[in-house]
Amino acid sequence: MPRLSEVDRHRDLGLLQEGLPISEISLRMNANRTTIIRLRQRLHETDTVSDRPRSGRPRCTTQRQDRNLVRKHMNNRFLSASASSRQTRGRNNQRISANTERRHLSTSGLRARRPYIGPILTQRHRHQRTLWAQVHAAWDRIHWRSVVFSNESRFCIDHADGRVRVGRRSIERYQAVCVRGHNRWGGASLMMCCCFGSQRGPHTLLAGVCLDL
Asked: Where does the record place a coiled coil (predicted)?
């Protein structure tokens, strides 16, 4: 039989106060006689028809197991929740689902996000880039007019760039353990280059094919 809503419970109590028998009320409300009797008993004991507070479903892992789970993903940021759940056991040696593991990781701020893909920068690279920015911070428009900005993009031909997820916090996008390293020039690809500056001129499209033999 369907579960009685809050409105139906108050309606049952009204019928009881009118003196209708429990069997007739159960037929009208399509409820079991035991449900009506327990509803009257609950009102007498607690002065309410609402459900008693429940503790909820017991957790399948302990707090120590949750800490070990987070530590495992902190050591290997590219470990997926589905792969880790197959290796993790909860209370009483029971298996846990991937969704349960994702909820535990989410409470620690670890969510599956797209990793930043780029070259791994050493401390020397970071220092040199910081010095370059400090030297050019005071440049005015006259200095920048003599500069041509260029950029290029590589499109893979022989394979598709696979999408992976990394478990990281929102402020850890550029951490070394969260960056997916790759060989920028590996494999057959199509390289598109472009540049722009303050001087006007004809537009030219430059394209080349890079082959890794």
From this structure: none
Same domain assignment for residues 173 and 138? yes
Give 133-191 pLDDT, tens digit per residue: 999 998 988 888 888 888 887 777 755 556 678 888 888 888 888 887 666 555 667 77
Place of tokens 């200095």: 143
pTM: 0.42
Secondary element (H or E) of residue 129 = helix 123-135
The residue segments making up the domain with residue 91 are: 63-108
User: What is the bridge-based pairing of β-strands 111-113 and 166-168?
Assistant: antiparallel
1, part of any domain: no
- Cβ atoms of 39 and 12 within 8 Å: the answer is yes
- Which region holds residue 80: left if phi is over 0, alpha if psi is between -120 and 50, else beta? beta
136 with 185, same domain?
yes
Query: Are 84 and 129 in the same domain?
Result: no
Task: Please answer whether residues 188 and 209 qualify as being in contact, where contact means their C-beta atoms are separated by less than 8 angstroms.
Answer: yes
The predicted pLDDT at position 213 comes to 37
Interatomic CA distance for residues 159 and 183, integer angstroms = 13
Same domain, 140 and 189: yes
**Are 153 and 205 found together in one domain?**
yes
The total domain count for the chain is: 3
